[in-house]
Amino acid sequence: MDRDDIVVDAFKTAQDGDGWILRLYEAKQKRGEVTVCVDLPFSSVTECNLMETDETAIDTTNGTFRFTIRPFEVKTFRLK
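^ that's the sequence the OP posted. Answer follows.
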Protein backbone atom coordinates (compact mmCIF):
# COMPACT_ATOMS: atom_id res chain seq x y z
CA MET A 1 0.00 0.00 0.00
CA ASP A 2 1.10 3.51 -0.64
CA ARG A 3 -0.05 4.92 2.73
CA ASP A 4 1.06 4.25 6.29
CA ASP A 5 -2.41 4.91 7.76
CA ILE A 6 -3.93 1.83 6.09
CA VAL A 7 -3.74 -1.37 8.16
CA VAL A 8 -4.30 -4.92 6.92
CA ASP A 9 -6.91 -6.39 9.26
CA ALA A 10 -7.25 -9.75 7.47
CA PHE A 11 -6.05 -11.68 4.47
CA LYS A 12 -7.77 -15.04 4.27
CA THR A 13 -9.61 -17.52 2.12
CA ALA A 14 -13.17 -16.33 1.45
CA GLN A 15 -15.80 -18.03 3.62
CA ASP A 16 -17.46 -19.47 0.51
CA GLY A 17 -14.07 -20.64 -0.82
CA ASP A 18 -14.28 -18.36 -3.86
CA GLY A 19 -11.07 -16.31 -3.81
CA TRP A 20 -9.23 -14.41 -1.12
CA ILE A 21 -10.52 -11.71 1.21
CA LEU A 22 -8.41 -8.63 1.95
CA ARG A 23 -9.79 -6.44 4.74
CA LEU A 24 -8.21 -3.04 5.42
CA TYR A 25 -8.94 -0.11 7.67
CA GLU A 26 -7.85 3.50 7.94
CA ALA A 27 -6.21 4.08 11.34
CA LYS A 28 -5.13 7.75 11.50
CA GLN A 29 -8.28 9.75 10.71
CA LYS A 30 -7.27 10.50 7.11
CA ARG A 31 -9.18 10.25 3.84
CA GLY A 32 -8.28 9.92 0.20
CA GLU A 33 -7.18 7.48 -2.46
CA VAL A 34 -5.30 4.28 -1.63
CA THR A 35 -3.27 2.19 -4.07
CA VAL A 36 -2.78 -1.49 -3.28
CA CYS A 37 -0.24 -3.69 -5.05
CA VAL A 38 -0.68 -7.43 -4.49
CA ASP A 39 2.08 -9.87 -5.38
CA LEU A 40 -0.31 -12.79 -5.97
CA PRO A 41 -1.95 -13.88 -9.20
CA PHE A 42 -5.52 -12.55 -9.46
CA SER A 43 -7.73 -11.45 -12.31
CA SER A 44 -10.48 -9.51 -10.54
CA VAL A 45 -11.17 -7.46 -7.41
CA THR A 46 -14.63 -6.88 -5.98
CA GLU A 47 -15.46 -4.67 -3.03
CA CYS A 48 -17.56 -6.61 -0.51
CA ASN A 49 -19.43 -5.89 2.67
CA LEU A 50 -18.27 -7.32 6.01
CA MET A 51 -20.33 -10.47 5.36
CA GLU A 52 -18.26 -10.99 2.17
CA THR A 53 -21.18 -10.35 -0.17
CA ASP A 54 -19.90 -8.91 -3.46
CA GLU A 55 -20.94 -5.33 -4.14
CA THR A 56 -18.78 -3.39 -6.64
CA ALA A 57 -16.19 -4.48 -9.22
CA ILE A 58 -12.87 -2.62 -8.95
CA ASP A 59 -10.59 -1.95 -11.94
CA THR A 60 -7.20 -3.66 -11.73
CA THR A 61 -3.96 -3.16 -13.63
CA ASN A 62 -0.88 -5.39 -13.27
CA GLY A 63 -1.70 -6.52 -9.72
CA THR A 64 -2.68 -3.03 -8.58
CA PHE A 65 -6.03 -1.52 -7.65
CA ARG A 66 -7.21 1.79 -6.19
CA PHE A 67 -10.04 2.89 -3.95
CA THR A 68 -11.10 5.85 -1.80
CA ILE A 69 -11.33 5.61 1.97
CA ARG A 70 -12.71 7.80 4.78
CA PRO A 71 -11.37 8.21 8.34
CA PHE A 72 -11.54 4.94 10.31
CA GLU A 73 -13.42 3.20 7.49
CA VAL A 74 -13.13 -0.58 6.99
CA LYS A 75 -12.91 -1.86 3.40
CA THR A 76 -13.24 -5.49 2.29
CA PHE A 77 -12.15 -6.82 -1.10
CA ARG A 78 -12.45 -10.22 -2.79
CA LEU A 79 -9.53 -11.15 -5.04
CA LYS A 80 -10.03 -13.95 -7.58
